Amino acid sequence: MQRGNITRLTVAQALAGANSVVVYATGAIVGHHLASNKALATLPISIFVVGMAASILPAGAIARHHGRRAAFLAGTGCGVLVGLLAAVAVVLGSFWLFCLATFFGGAYAAVVLSFRFAAADGVNPSKRARALSFVMGGGVAAGVVGPQLVTYTMDLWPAHLFAATFVAQAAVAALSAWVLLGVRLPMPSAAEVAGGRPLGLIARQPLFITAVICGAVSYMLMNFLMTAAPLAMQMSGHSQESANLGLQWHVIAMYAPSFFTGRLITRFGAGRVVVAGLLLTGLSAAVGLLGVDIPHFWLTLVLLGLGWNFGFIGASALVLECHRPEEKTRVQSFNDFIVFGTMAVGSFASGGLLAAYDWNVVLWVSFVPLALALAALALTRPVNTELAA
Length: 389
Hints:
The protein is mainly alpha-helical.
């Protein structure tokens, strides 16, 4: 049964991933077109991230009391809603309605990211990292579907750029809901509803703190740089099609390693994999500082995707070591709440820095949280032991 669940979750990840790609590819462009104050151009993407952070705990509560599938279907409902609201916002020229739409898009994305933990339910502990990373691998298809969805639909309604794209995105979300209807996961036990140990006790574990910091930094920097990249490319004179293609390879790089990241974690340990991810993210920023030609942007985005994969999946594997089975939904939701809350700060800062300064300043700032995450890994004894093994 769990093999069937993992297959469905992987397919749903592929379909649902297109939601995030569409928002990231179009959000800053549509925001720049609709906003009277151009400094607010990336606000829709920041609202998207706020929607993720705001929805994590409610989605976890739904899963804890009514089962994971109920949370999944609530999320895909938000996915349909974001597409329809965004299309209406473009037609009406309403910036704030578009921001509301991206909030629901964030709620959808938050639920989608819980697929990775659902894949580990009922799996032998030695194989959890592989199950988790395999489902994340479904995002490879999203890296193709999302950008191509934008490229082939954005001009279908010439008077309203991207309106048809958002309608198509709503249809893809509805298809994802149909796939998820077949997921069969056990209903929460009485112990899981009760929640286990106090959350504060679990959150004070050094390993949990390190996992949260590394997951937050990996995701925040990915969002921080990817939010600004399409608009920075446009400001540098590059076409929307070039930005779409860059995002396509970025998303493929985010998810393609997932088919073997779990094996790397089993072989080398989650700590080493996280370090590799953080270093790749730093390398991506360094490449971006070398120039603003299309190859510089594309290589930056590809390295950024690889860094996110190792950093975020490695940190997620560390989280699995920090809780008992009956505590999983509370601890996993709390972890994601902190990760996406931190990511929201980075998203807001990205647009402001790009508008006030330039792309290079955005890249330089990214080295600060990288240093923090590497320091957390160095100071946490369990990870040090692992790294020395």
